[in-house]
Specification:
- The protein is built from 11 helices and 13 strands.
- It is α+β, with helices and mostly antiparallel strands.
- It folds into 3 domains: 121 residues, Beta-Lactamase (2-Layer Sandwich), CATH 3.30.450; 35 residues; 167 residues, 2-Layer Sandwich (Alpha-Beta Plaits), CATH 3.30.70.270.
């Protein structure tokens, strides 16, 4: 009758077992244990030279190991991976001090499967490690699917937010985006400037050449404004032919004058459309806010609008900086008919 302690039986039931003789030398290693030392035949070596006993710390000899037969062992392989293992030791009956130690990976199973390229064939059929591996694999797959879904959702969210802040015709920021940027600058107390730009003679383009020409002009104007400002500036289309440029950290009025002059010069160049020429110009009103100056968004936009109206009255294609003298006497706001008279 075959003994349950014969290697062939134990290799099937406990593929991670070891048998030791009375002197502590390994007389047999289960197939999975042998895989942990695939470039080294551990049979014939002393157990304590192949494994380090982490707990109990009192085990320093085979005699100490034999006395720990009722204690769970915490071991570590003496190889490059330094794999942590748990062990259970049982004396072999009717022998002169031989013992069996059955090993398991415990929480190090994931790393061990990867490091030693183990498969389900390397574990006993009843070992719960197989179910654990399936659960871990399923969890990893679910987490990866969740990560990809979150990436898609985040991408969709970014796209939706970008669309919500973008003027669809010109690709510029819209009024909502401009309000967001301006509000942030006001709250931070940093210096900035706001240019309010209105196109001169744009209505005439729409009336004579049609809305397709008008849309083309707006797209050309948008491209010109982006090219004549910095990457840190915000160019927004805030109305039909109205634009606002928010310029953070401007050092002087002279810089603003040069930016305004470049924009006016660019927009005075005739814009070809279907064999016709669209002729426009631009009027600009600018307000500059110094660092630490407490203002409200409404006040800043009103003052830029007042300066713009002054440019219109001055003959168009002009650039005016806001000053308190420009505000209509007795009125805190822009005259109601100002917009109607701009073009």
């Amino acid at each position: 009758m075959t003994s349950l302690t014969e290697p062939a039986v134990l290799d099937v039931l406990c593929p991670m077992h070891l048998t030791l003789n009375a002197s502590g030398h390994i007389t047999h290693a289960g197939p999975t244990v042998a895989k942990l030392f695939r470039f080294r035949n551990i049979v014939g070596e002393r157990f304590l030279e192949v494994f380090a006993v982490k707990r109990p710390k009192s085990v320093t000899s085979i005699a100490d190991l034999r006395r720990a037969s009722q204690v769970k062992l915490h071991l570590e392989t003496r190889n490059s991976h330094r794999t942590e293992l748990k062990g259970e030791m049982v004396p072999i009956p009717d022998t002169d001090g031989a013992i069996i130690i059955n090993l398991s990976f415990g929480i190090s199973i994931i790393e061990s499967v990867r490091d030693y390229r183990l498969t389900n064939c390397d574990f006993a059929a009843t070992d719960l490690a197989i179910e654990m591996l399936y659960l871990v694999e399923a969890k990893s797959a679910a987490m990866e699917a969740s990560r990809k879904l979150n990436q898609r959702l985040q991408g969709a969210k970014v796209a939706a937010e970008e669309q919500a802040f973008t003027d669809t015709l010109t690709g510029l920021k819209n009024r909502r985006a401009m309000d967001h940027v301006l509000g942030r600058l006001i709250r931070s107390g940093t210096s900035f400037a706001v240019m309010h730009i209105d196109l001169d003679f744009f209505k005439a383009v729409n009336d004579t050449l049609g809305h397709a020409a008008g849309d083309h002009v707006l797209q050309v104007v948008a491209e010109a404004m982006v090219e004549e400002t910095r990457n840190t500036d915000t160019v927004a289309r805030v109305g039909g032919d109205e634009f606002t440029v928010v310029l953070p950290e401007v050092e002087s009025d002279e810089i603003l004058r040069r930016v305004g002059a470049r924009i006016i010069e660019r927009l005075e160049v005739p814009i070809p459309f279907n064999g016709e020429e669209c002729r426009i110009s631009a009027s600009i009103g600018t307000v500059r806010v110094r660092e630490g100056h407490s203002v409200t968004m409404q006040t800043v936009l009103e003052e830029a609008d007042i300066a713009l109206y002054a440019s219109k009255r001055a003959g168009r294609a002009c650039h005016t900086f806001f000053s308190p003298e420009l505000r209509p006497s007795g009125q805190a706001d822009l005259p109601m008919d100002a917009r109607a008279n701009r073009d």
